[in-house]
């Protein structure tokens, strides 16, 4: 069996908030456990303060946990998009990053051209970062992360500033990374943004993995070839489950319209039979 790319076991991380003499301890992660396998893209959804960024920092080895354990492969943390070095071209910015890695004692010389090509940015390699669109800047951040040849990418809310077309392009790029065996953690405040990108979505609440309510809203679909339809749909919506001749999709992080659109794009004839609160038990179709 292939070893996991990341294992977090009962991880606790606390911060001190405030100023000396007037501060309080804040628990960002409260006994969180999570396993990520190679070639898997796990979405982390949750509101502000849920612990998403702290989880990524611990997974990337930047923040040590106060309790629990973190074991994983070489990881790279990609922060929310910024405008660092906006007057440098993409190639010049990556050359600078590669030089800094070499000065820090990294044994292997980073492959700048390879990172640019893997991020599908060869056509804008000589364009200044400040002139790139949000979608291209998001991919430039990926190119920067790829300089270290990571096996795990920790992406902090990269979709927030992207429109629908850029999200699709970004998701297609992550799919290619997964095909190369990379594991990916990607966060978003709204789990629906991760539909079609993440192979599964985990929701955080107050530093813990939230347990879905037994009566969560669920969409039930009647399809002509349920086994084939479930396999096709699971590539875009991993939470789909097959029950007899029907498919059932919990709507915690995706809308009914997005489910129906995914069914149509998969080429299946679909009829909605129920749309209500019901248990989400059933055999997983992956």
Produce a short descriptive summary.
This protein is an alpha/beta fold and 286 residues long. The protein is built from seven helices and 14 strands.
How would you characterize the overall build of this protein?
This is Putative daunorubicin resistance ABC transporter ATP-binding subunit, antibiotic transport system ATP-binding protein. This protein has 286 residues and is α/β, with parallel strands linked by helices. It contains 7 helices and 14 strands. Strands 5-6-7-3-8-9 form a 6-stranded mixed β-sheet, sandwiched between helices. Strands 13-10-12-11-14 form a 5-stranded antiparallel β-sheet, with helices on one face. The longest helix has 16 residues, at 164-179. It starts with 5 loop residues before the first strand and ends with a strand.
Task: Explain the layout of strands and helices.
Blueprint: E1 6-19, E2 22-36, E3 41-45, H1 52-59, E4 67-72, E5 75-78, H2 90-103, H3 112-118, H4 134-146, E6 152-155, H5 164-179, E7 183-188, E8 200-205, E9 208-209, E10 217-223, H6 226-234, E11 241-243, E12 246-250, H7 256-265, E13 270-277, E14 283-284
Parallel strand pairs: 3-7, 3-8, 5-6, 6-7
Antiparallel strand pairs: 1-2, 1-4, 8-9, 10-12, 10-13, 11-12, 11-14
Q: Which terms summarize this structure?
A:
6-stranded mixed β-sheet; globular; 14 strands; alpha/beta; 286 residues; disordered C terminus; Alpha-Beta Plaits; 7 helices
